[in-house]
Amino acid sequence: MLRLGRLVKVVLLSDNPTELINSRVMNTNHRKPPARARRSTAGANPAAATADAPLFDPVEREPAYIRVSSAIEAKILSRSLRGGDVLPAETELAQQFRVHRSTVREALRQLESAGLVTRPPGAKRMVVSRPHAAKVSSGMRHALVLHDVTFVDVWEAMMVIEPEVAALAAARRTQTDLDALTRAAEAFRGCPKDDPNAVDVVAEFFQAMGAASRNQVLVLAKQSLTDALAPSLARMIDTVPQARQRIADAQRRIITAVRDKNAEEARKWMSKHVRDFQRGYELAGISPDTPISV
What we know:
Elements: H1 2-13, H2 17-29, H3 35-43, H4 46-52, H5 64-77, H6 90-97, H7 101-113, E1 117-118, E2 127-128, H8 133-146, H9 151-172, H10 175-189, H11 198-213, H12 216-239, H13 243-259, H14 263-283
Antiparallel strand pairs: 1-2
């Protein structure tokens, strides 16, 4: 209204009102569009839209029991909680985490499944534990199967690991280790033909050798390989007539080298023993490219 009144006043005082009004109209038509219009045209530009996009995606919200489980797991892996330590009762954990007791119970169930905690028989509270080698091996074996690992892949890995494990066992073994190796070898020789447990006894021999090496990394690594090889090894033992005798002879010579603490001899015979597996698979008609199975 103020602008309109000012315009009327100017027109009334002007000598040529018509010319003045036309010039005002032309000036109005040549004005720049308002800021809002300019912003709307910029929004149609794909480059500008990309520049305005957020750099990060929203963080996914995890269930409370996973956060509780992760917090306890972090304490265990940082060694703030060690094997044998007793965890607080469920009610106390619920108070500390400020969650329901059912949430704590589900978190503990997940940790127990991972082998990080266990409940001793008759106990009311969970105890921190170490995952057993068999549990670690099971998870690793499943991963090998899902990655389509073949017999030759496992065999090559065993050719690298097993001879060195035997050499370490010869240097570090105790009488208890030697007794365990001897029992496993005797058990294999006593297995009747077509005994499905024969392959398990072969695995026990390799496990006893790993224990004698005193290297936990090698123990965990080699057990998963032995377990992965077991199904096809059982087929080879039952198919190739001389397989049992050759395995028994190799075990006897390896035990002798370990007993004498002759690392080089133990390495040599274990290398021959594992190499013999490949020949046995060929005689059994098992292709080296056969994927391993559970």
